[in-house]
């Protein structure tokens, strides 16, 4: 057995694989992305989840999930899984909070003028 078989590639290790051109698109972060970044800073500042744990958490999502989620969606999924593992948050508690947030969003959409794209303001 060669030593190359002893090392498993991580999901974000795509070096040497065939792929199309990487197109960098500069864009203003959406409000939810800014909040996600702020959450990462707060979790790190309070020594709840550090940068290394976040990186490992994203890698633990696996290549399929990493390929499907956006950059900050990966962070959110990793944060949730790490908080579950540490016993700080339960999936049930997260589900309740997500329902509360969705309810507030639905109420805000009923009173907000439509921008015509059918999405409302959901991604903000």
Explain this structure to me?
There is one protein chain. This protein has about 120 residues and is mostly helical. It has five helices and no strands. Helix 2 (about 50-60) crosses helix 4 (about 70-85). The mean pLDDT is about 85.
Keywords:
single chain; mainly alpha; 124 residues; globular
Distance N terminus to C terminus? Answer: 51 Å
Give the averaged pLDDT, no decimals: 85
Q: Could you estimate the helical fraction of the residues in percent?
A: 40-55%
Shape: globular
Strand-and-helix sequence, N→C?
HHHHH
**Biggest sheet character:** none
**How would you classify the helix and strand content by structural class?**
mainly alpha
Q: Which regions contain 5 or more consecutive residues with pLDDT less than 50? A: none
Q: Supply Rg.
A: 18 Å
Strand coverage percent: under 5%
Number of strands: 0
Number of helices: 5
Summary?
The protein is mostly helical and 124 residues long. It has helices spanning 31-45, 51-60, 62-68, 71-85, 91-111.
Topology:
Blueprint lengths: L30 H15 L5 H10 L1 H7 L2 H15 L5 H21 L13
Helix pairs in contact: 1-4, 2-4
């Amino acid at each position: 057995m060669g030593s190359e078989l002893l090392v498993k590639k991580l999901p974000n290790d795509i070096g040497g694989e065939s792929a199309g051109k990487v197109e960098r698109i500069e864009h203003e972060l959406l409000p939810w992305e800014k909040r996600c970044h702020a959450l990462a800073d707060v979790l790190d500042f309070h020594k709840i989840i550090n940068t290394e744990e976040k990186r490992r958490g994203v890698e633990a999502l696996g290549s399929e999930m990493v390929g499907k989620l956006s950059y900050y969606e990966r962070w959110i999924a990793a944060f949730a899984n790490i908080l579950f593992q540490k016993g700080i948050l339960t999936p049930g508690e997260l589900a309740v909070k997500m329902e509360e947030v969705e309810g507030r969003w639905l109420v805000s959409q009923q009173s907000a003028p439509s921008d015509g794209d059918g999405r409302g303001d959901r991604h903000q």
